[in-house]
Write a structure and sequence with these properties.
There is one protein chain. This protein is mostly helical. The chain has four helices and no strands. The longest helix is centred in the middle third of the chain and has 16 residues, at 21-36.
Length: 83
């Protein structure tokens, strides 16, 4: 297996057509962002943690509705407020 070095990547970049450089730059930004993400669960407040636990309990107890049902309930609620 070949070892990839910055020099080898740079050589390849230098052979790319100029119209691809923006796409490559965007992809590099994407990779940097993707691997810079951290676990955000440490940033949750106590209230957020309680709400997540409540949601998990509701799911376990079958207290759920479909996305379609939820959209309809919201639509009905909004209509009732504009009468």
């Amino acid at each position: 297996m070949n070892t990839i070095t910055a020099s080898k990547i740079n050589q390849k970049v230098n052979t790319l057509p100029e119209k691809l450089l923006q796409e490559l730059d965007d992809y590099i930004d994407f990779l940097k962002y993707k691997y810079a993400q951290k676990d955000r669960s440490d940033d949750l407040t106590e209230q957020q943690i309680k709400l997540i636990e409540k949601g998990k309990k509701d799911i376990a107890q079958g207290k759920v509705i479909s996305h379609t049902e939820a959209k309809q309930k919201i639509k009905n609620y909004i209509k009732s407020k504009h009468r």
